[in-house]
Amino acid sequence: MGCCSGCMRPANYKKIPENLPVTNTDNQNEQSINSSPHMHQPANGEDTSIVDIYEGAEIMRKFSNSATYQQRFVWVEASTKTIHMSEHMNKNRRHKKANLVDVTSIKAGKPMKWKKRVSSEFDKDDFTNCLTINFRRGEGVDFEFKSAQEREAWQRALSALVEEFASETERP
Questions:
Q1: How would you class 110 by CB atoms within 10 Å of its CB: exposed for 0-12, middle for 13-18, buried for 19 or more?
Q2: Are 128 and 122 a contacting pair, CB within 8 Å?
Q3: Class of residue 60 by CB neighbours under 10 A (exposed 0-12, middle 13-18, buried 19+)
Q4: How far apart are CA 152 and CA 150, in angstroms?
Q5: Is the pTM of this model over 0.70?
């Protein structure tokens, strides 16, 4: 892969050979990331995919005052202490965000407002896959996951993160 224009190329530019081996010299950092408390390692009988709140996932989302869920790509940015929700299935496009420092509660179960469904890829009115995040200011956000295990993994990871952020703000 090269530059788009010849004027952007320096005079001493050397092409990188394509057959160079790729090596990973950052194994220690990779291990510490994979052992993060914000990643859920599945137990026996659970889905074998790791839920990583930083990578993001496609989740059904609605605001608490609404009744209809919409598919969104959701992820967490620890550096800004925010949760992001995009209608595009990646992080690079326009999206809404909410500050996790303002979270007052995270609870699993039935949302305050919902719409009965005729058909869906999710079980009809099964609230075991639902999670509600309430904020100090504004309204809450309701999520519906594909499984109770995925919901539980996000709930544990978000709760740990919110608790961590709260303890940081309490320190003098």
A1: middle
A2: no
A3: buried
A4: 5
A5: no
